[in-house]
């Protein structure tokens, strides 16, 4: 500690580490913002790494400033360290470093306060990270005493090059990045064999499906669903609730609805080992997004996608589950979940409590990302209690729609096929496209599953679905033609 050169080395080393960590944090933030890494099962740890790099940069910058105060040659005072232009030594380059430090502190602080901040303010502050890296670059180049060393120059060129690439990527993808990326081209339904069935409760049947020949199945992520085309002509979607790492089978759970519209009753009566069903998917419109803290709310059979999400979380992630149902005897996986995570899982059976739990009280004070799957009464109540940016819903039935003027006819131009389609006031856009020999992959035909997503090139869609918010759909430039129509007299679709 008495070596006069020690703090000189500490100042330089900590400054370079802070610069490198800051650049790495910006690069990782770009990857997250552009959703390049969205397909990973549970990308929350990526956000942790982004935040860890930012925190490391802040700590190293603080150490750099402290070492400059302790260095016998520079011997900065507290005022010179924290007040721009107060330093006698190269005041302007030093001032750039001080401003960069304050920007970095503001960006990192906004990350910690993100759940309590308006999204626009948080986003505006985060753009300060680019400015901070640029200021640090000039600060290092103008105030350092060893900028002529080849090692320093090499590090500087690498970090400046990476920062330039990050800025260019962010600019080029800022309009393309969207919370609703177009789904991949839908694969045709393929025959799959029922390999096992087993009762999960007296009303819920577990069904395992495998490819004929035993070949590996496509990868799926928590929240995904299969679409079953049943022999009785019905098409039904069921969430996957097995292990994504098991590529030999898909596992679903089917609740026997009362009264059944025909899908669940047919499966309960006819799905036996050896039965062959036409299956498409998996598709996912209920993805698990990165978050520090999760609150899962499941109603009845809505536990199926939630279970897969919970099992995909790393051990250190903060989460809790509120599982609501008529009775434990009808609530699939309730015993298993309670035994595995007793501190995280709360089961509310109405035959025990007499009433449904008070969701407003449960949500009071929480800043967690809320994921809900269940009946309409539950999802609509949550929609009034949780801010839209933190709420993620998968519905059993379409959300209630506000009154709209009477339906009217409109024209559709399909750009890629150069086809014009007339949609009368008495038919859906999906029906009109199918009649014009432009089939669109669809499933529920109720505006719930999102399978029929189509890109919009021109015109203003009238969104009548329950897949996502109107703002997200307009930003993504998509329409769900099974129920949605057009505000304008014409639409141009990417078909």
From TrEMBL:
It is a multi-pass membrane protein. GO terms for molecular function: 2 iron, 2 sulfur cluster binding; dioxygenase activity; metal ion binding. Residues 187-289 form the FAD-binding FR-type domain. Residues 410-495 form the 2Fe-2S ferredoxin-type domain. CDD domains: fer2, PDR_like. Its EC number is 1.-.-.-. This is Phenoxybenzoate dioxygenase subunit beta. Keywords: 2Fe-2S, Dioxygenase, Flavoprotein, Iron, Iron-sulfur, Membrane, Metal-binding, Oxidoreductase, Transmembrane, Transmembrane helix. PANTHER family: CARNITINE MONOOXYGENASE REDUCTASE SUBUNIT, NADH OXIDOREDUCTASE HCR. Its cofactor is FAD. The gene is pobB_1. The chain crosses the membrane at residues 6-31, 52-70, 90-113, 125-144, 150-172. InterPro entries: 2Fe-2S_ferredoxin-like_sf, 2Fe-2S_ferredoxin-type, 2Fe2S_fd_BS, Beta-grasp_dom_sf, FAD-bd_FR_type, Fe3_Rdtase_TM_dom, FNR_nucleotide-bd, MRET. GO terms for cellular component: membrane. Gene3D superfamilies: 3.10.20.30, Nucleotide-binding domain of ferredoxin-NADP reductase (FNR) module, Translation factors. It comes from the Bacteria. It is found in: Membrane.
């Amino acid at each position: 500690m008495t070596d006069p050169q020690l703090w000189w080395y500490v100042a330089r080393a900590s400054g370079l580490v802070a610069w490198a960590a800051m650049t790495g944090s910006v690069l990782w933030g770009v990857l997250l913002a552009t959703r390049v890494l969205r397909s990973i099962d549970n990308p929350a740890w990526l956000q942790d790494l982004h935040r860890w790099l930012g925190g490391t940069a802040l700590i190293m910058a603080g150490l750099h400033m402290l070492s400059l105060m302790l260095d016998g040659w520079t011997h900065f005072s507290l005022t010179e360290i924290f007040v721009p232009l107060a330093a006698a030594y190269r005041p302007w380059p030093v001032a750039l470093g001080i401003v960069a430090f304050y920007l970095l502190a503001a960006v990192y602080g906004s990350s910690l306060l993100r759940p309590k901040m308006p999204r626009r303010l948080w986003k505006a502050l985060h753009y300060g990270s680019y400015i901070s890296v640029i200021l640090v670059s000039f600060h290092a180049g103008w105030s350092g005493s060893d900028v002529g060393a080849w090692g320093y120059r090499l590090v500087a060129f690498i970090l400046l090059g990476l920062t330039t690439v990050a800025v260019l990527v962010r600019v080029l993808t800022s309009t393309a990045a969207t919370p609703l990326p177009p789904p991949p081209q839908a694969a045709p339904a393929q025959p799959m064999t029922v390999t096992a069935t087993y009762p999960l409760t007296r009303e819920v049947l577990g069904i395992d499906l495998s490819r004929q020949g035993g070949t590996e199945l496509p990868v799926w992520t928590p929240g995904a669903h299969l679409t079953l085309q049943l022999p009785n002509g019905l098409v039904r979607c069921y969430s996957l609730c097995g292990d994504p790492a098991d590529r030999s089978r898909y596992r679903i759970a089917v609740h026997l609805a009362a009264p059944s519209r025909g899908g669940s009753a047919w499966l309960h009566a006819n799905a036996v080992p050896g039965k062959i069903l036409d299956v498409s998917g998996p598709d996912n419109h209920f993805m698990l997004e990165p978050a520090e803290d999760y609150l899962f709310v499941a109603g009845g059979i809505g536990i199926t996608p939630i279970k897969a999400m919970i099992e995909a979380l790393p051990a250190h992630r903060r989460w809790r589950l509120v599982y609501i149902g008529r009775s434990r005897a009808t609530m699939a996986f309730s015993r298993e979940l309670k035994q595995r995570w007793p501190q995280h899982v709360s089961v509310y059976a109405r035959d025990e409590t007499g009433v449904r739990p008070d969701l407003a009280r449960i949500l009071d004070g929480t800043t967690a990302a809320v994921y809900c799957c269940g009946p309409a009464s539950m999802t609509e109540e949550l929609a009034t209690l949780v801010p839209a940016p933190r709420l993620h819903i998968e519905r059993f039935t379409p959300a209630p729609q506000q009154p709209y003027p009477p339906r009217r006819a409109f024209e559709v131009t399909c750009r890629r096929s150069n086809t014009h389609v007339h949609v009368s006031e008495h038919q859906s856009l999906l029906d009109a496209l199918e009649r014009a020999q432009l089939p669109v992959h669809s499933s529920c035909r109720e505006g719930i599953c999102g399978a029929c997503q189509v890109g919009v090139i021109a015109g203003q869609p009238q969104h009548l679905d329950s897949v996502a918010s109107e703002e997200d759909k307009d930003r993504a430039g998509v329409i769900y033609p099974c129920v949605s129509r057009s505000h304008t007299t014409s639409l141009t679709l990417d078909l």
